[in-house]
């Protein structure tokens, strides 16, 4: 298997076979993101990806159970090409239970629903999607490349085909100025979309990104640990949909996981208790460890 650059994957894919299908991110303009900033985006050839899959089968055997195809927005691949590698992975690994990619709403727009059906039938089980916020002003500020309406409409289009959606919310990305709107609008979008999973991450300034500069120059105001926990509380308090909530990331100040709505009272109680813990007890992770 050949890997180029730093390979990022969601924590939930820690046990998955990682095969790069794309290199970098075709958008690469989110102001907070430093993952692929210096990488020129390209899609690897199907032949190359198949070679890597074969090599993985020879190395690990054929009982691989899950495969994640990095890098950013692999969903952008032509449907025929993505379906070809999914089909091939299924042939090589008969025990496969899950195949997943990264994808955001602006790239869902490029596919018709029957293409998502095709990908589902070829074995695409889940898309990890960084919506970050449901607040349109925040989405504009961070240059996400899509609106809240697109996140809802395009996400629903995917979900209706049976592909699971795992949506990522970035706590604190609205800064101190938009913390309330970011929480309330993100809850609104999640309630309308009802993704299968909602995963929380907390914004950490990443050296070399435009938002890091804004933070350094005092134009962006980072939330304190208590403010981040209160924002999370406001978000969770306003969730009325039904999904699994995870804060499975080292950046978070609050470790709250559970089923919404069943576990919502316990999660809110935990968050309230955390606001009583002195702020000095929370440590913000360095962006190098994200
Ligand atoms: S957050 Fe996602 S879409 Fe935005 S630049 Fe980073 S990888 Fe690309």
UniProtKB/TrEMBL annotation:
Its cofactor is [4Fe-4S] cluster. It comes from the Bacteria. It holds the Pfam family Radical_SAM. Residues 9-242 form the Radical SAM core domain. InterPro entries: Aldolase_TIM, BchE-like, Elp3/MiaA/NifB-like_rSAM, rSAM, rSAM_sf. Keywords: Iron, Iron-sulfur, Metal-binding, S-adenosyl-L-methionine. GO terms for molecular function: catalytic activity; iron-sulfur cluster binding; metal ion binding. Transmembrane segments: none annotated. This is Fe-S oxidoreductase.
């Amino acid at each position: 298997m050949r890997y180029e650059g730093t390979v990022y994957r969601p924590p939930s894919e820690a046990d998955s076979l990682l095969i790069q299908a794309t290199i970098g991110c075709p958008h690469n303009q989110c102001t907070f993101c430093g993952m692929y900033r210096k990488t020129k985006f390209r899609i690897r050839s199907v032949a190359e990806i198949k070679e890597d899959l074969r090599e993985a089968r020879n190395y690990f055997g054929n009982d691989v159970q899950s495969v994640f195809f990095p890098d950013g927005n692999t969903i952008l691949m032509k449907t025929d090409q993505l379906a070809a590698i999914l089909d091939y992975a299924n042939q090589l690994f008969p025990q496969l239970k899950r195949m997943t990619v990264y994808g955001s709403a602006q790239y869902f727009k490029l596919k018709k629903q029957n293409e998502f059906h095709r990908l589902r039938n070829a074995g695409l089980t889940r898309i990890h999607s960084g919506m970050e916020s449901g607040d349109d002003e925040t989405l504009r500020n961070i240059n996400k490349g899509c609106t809240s309406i697109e996140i809802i409409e395009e996400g629903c289009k995917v979900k209706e085909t049976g592909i699971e959606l795992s949506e990522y919310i970035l706590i604190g990305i609205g800064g101190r100025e938009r913390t309330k709107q970011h929480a309330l609008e993100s809850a609104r979008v999640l309630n309308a979309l009802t993704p299968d999973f909602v995963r929380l991450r907390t914004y950490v300034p990443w050296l070399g990104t435009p938002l890091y500069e804004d933070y350094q120059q005092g134009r962006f105001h980072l939330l304190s640990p208590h403010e981040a926990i209160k924002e999370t509380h406001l978000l969770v308090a306003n969730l009325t949909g039904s999904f699994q909530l995870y804060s499975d990331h080292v950046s978070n100040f609050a470790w709250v996981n559970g089923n919404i709505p069943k576990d919502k009272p316990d999660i809110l109680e935990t968050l309230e208790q955390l606001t009583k813990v002195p702020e000095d007890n929370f440590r913000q992770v360095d962006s190098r460890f994200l």
